[in-house]
Amino acid sequence: MQNYETEILNIFEKSIKIIHKSKSLTKDINSIVNMIIKTIENKNKIIIFGNGGSAADAQHMAAEFVGRYLIERKSLPAIALTTDTSALTGIGNDYGFEQIFARQCDALVDDGDLVIAISTSGKSPNIVEGIKTCKKKKAKIVVLTGKNGNKLKRFSDIILQVPSNETPRIQEAHRTIIHIICEFVEKHFLNKKTDYKRRSKKI
């Protein structure tokens, strides 16, 4: 039997180190929380997309808004553009993979919406094209990326660059950031008449 304990501990340490260094993003995370609150209060919606693991993060974030994170409250308007396989495969087939988000954004994004694009590299052509389309639609743009995601900076209102080049470590930090954002948005929209009912996950 192989013993990976030393390597496992090393990975834990690396992950902890990157998440700790990501505390430097606190001011921008706070700004994103307030942007989301303002967007929803203005009767607009949150649109989220990404590829691979970042697609899963997009769906996770949207689910926490539409469902709930920790506290019972009203549903919040968020859509992940990574869930409709008919749209994704149809657009990919007819227009190319680069257009799978741009085409959906052209149809669904309105002036005043907030778009959250998640990309560990910041270089994916379909992410870039999606953001460009959203910018034309006068949406606000937030990007979650890694250390080398500078390509998306000029298209973004706020860009969070996790200080790492390693995809797994960036993704782990992104998930922590997403949970932080969800927690404070949820607290803002909490119905004051509702007790703090912590959910007990059955999964």
TrEMBL record:
GO cellular component labels: cytoplasm
Keywords: Carbohydrate metabolism, Cytoplasm, Isomerase, Metal-binding, Zinc
Intracellular or extracellular location(s): Cytoplasm
PANTHER family: DNAA INITIATOR-ASSOCIATING PROTEIN DIAA, SEDOHEPTULOSE 7-PHOSPHATE ISOMERASE / DNAA INITIATOR-ASSOCIATING FACTOR FOR REPLICATION INITIATION
HAMAP family found in the cross-reference section: GmhA (MF_00067)
Similarity field: Belongs to the SIS family. GmhA subfamily.
Name the record gives this protein: D-sedoheptulose-7-phosphate isomerase
Source species of the chain: marine metagenome
Lineage: unclassified sequences, metagenomes, ecological metagenomes
